Amino acid sequence: MERLQKVIANLGYTSRRKAEELIQTGKVKVNGEIVKELGTKVKTSDTIEVENTILDNCKNYEYYLLNKPREVISSVSDEHGRKTVVDLIQTKERIYPVGRLDYDTTGIILLTNDGCLANKLMHPSSNIEKKYIAKVNGLVSGYDIKRLRDGVVIDGKKTSKAKVNLKKYDKKTDKSLVELIIHEGRNHQVKKMFEAINHEVLKLKREKYANLDLTGLKPGEYRKLTNKEVAILYSLVK
Ligand code: URA
Description:
Helix content: 10-25%
Shape: elongated
Bound molecules: uracil
Radius of gyration: 21 Å
CATH class of the largest domain: Alpha Beta
Structural class: alpha+beta
CATH architecture of the largest domain: 2-Layer Sandwich
CATH superfamily of the largest domain: Pseudouridine synthase I, catalytic domain, N-terminal subdomain
Order of helices and strands: EHHEEEEEEEEHEHEEEEHEEEH
Distance between the termini: 29 Å
Oligomer: single chain
Largest sheet: 9 strands, mixed
CATH topology of the largest domain: Alpha-Beta Plaits
């Protein structure tokens, strides 16, 4: 038996303090009955409903943030025996990546066994902000930047407006470093956006995903998300 507010927080719905608020304001039901008393104890077999969402309290959800290195595939298994993002994380749970990064792309990727959150985050309507830094061939001109910002046609469809900035141009090597903030998650989107303006992506890193960044994580390292971080992700896809 666990205290209701702790169970709600541990399931990643929100912080413990916010869970207490939700309980006190009558937004939480246990087995169909509103429960306003803090500290009410619940069992794993109880059905907990918060703001009309039923929480699966039998399951121990896990949420990881990995700094994906190059040459690792973003899937659960690989028929060619290549290393996967799941291989890098030590857990007994059946976790899987939330979306994909290409084999040669590095940076932030989430893994979880919470299918509900994963599906919502991956849904095209989720509008999650992703920040990439791309090293590309040649000088990316002001006109190129404007085209990327306004949207370019890839696979027959224009990309949504993006925030794009040239961070650096190295004259010696004739390479540009470009930062892009996009909300879509189309297949090979960043590479195809540059292809549309005739620049080849040589290196690609995802530096931010929603409220999360890579602070303190070297390539190959990972950490668990905090309850608060999970709650923020939920709030972004509600
Ligand atoms: N866009 C790409 O082209 N590749 C990735 O891995 C991620 C975004």
